[in-house]
Structures are given as structure tokens and as C-alpha cells.
Specification:
Layout (H helix, E strand, L loop, with lengths): L1 E5 L2 E8 L2 E10 L4 E10 L2 H16 L2 H13 L15
Helix pairs in contact: 1-2
Length: 90
């Protein structure tokens, strides 16, 4: 699905049953190891969009790279997707 990469940093967005799964982190050892800095599921694509911006900013500390990532996210041809109802709390 959607992937943003910059040198050894990445953000990925995937559709899942309950919304949009966003995972971000870094690569080590020339890309052989993928370290996850964080992940979260959002019920809306707008929420995932905001996390993409926040994750890129946290990984790079460069606002222009966050803006570029959001621009790429907005232009990405995501499939039609709606989040299913969240399961009952335990």
C-alpha cells in the first residue's frame, strides 16, 4: 500500500478490517533490519493522514519532508475502504 521512505526512515499505511494501519520506523544494517518506532490503527483515512505527517516529522525533524509525505499520501490511489465496527471492549 502507501509507503514513504527517506534514507533509513519509513512510514507505511495499509487498509485493515477496522480502518487504516500506520506503522513507522527506521531501517538498520543497510535495510536488512526494520525497526518499528510505532504503529496505530485509525478508523478514518484522515486520521491516518495526520499520523503520516506526525510520524515523518518525528522521524526527520523536517517540516518540508512531512509536507511532501502528506502530498504523496493525498495523491496515492487508495482503494475504496470503510472501517468495520470496532469489537466490543473486553
Amino acid at each position: 500500500m502507501f509507503v514513504w521512505k527517506d534514507h533509513s526512515r519509513y512510514v507505511e499505511v495499509l487498509p485493515v478490517e477496522t480502518g487504516w494501519f500506520v506503522v513507522w520506523g527506521t531501517y538498520e544494517d543497510g535495510g536488512r533490519r526494520k525497526l518499528i518506532a510505532g504503529n496505530r490503527v485509525y478508523t478514518s483515512q484522515g486520521g491516518a493522514r495526520r499520523r503520516v505527517a506526525d510520524a515523518v516529522l518525528a522521524l526527520t525533524r523536517r517540516p518540508h519532508l512531512a509536507a511532501e509525505a502528506v502530498f504523496a499520501f493525498d495523491g496515492f490511489p487508495f482503494p475504496a475502504h470503510e472501517a468495520a465496527e470496532l469489537p466490543a471492549a473486553l
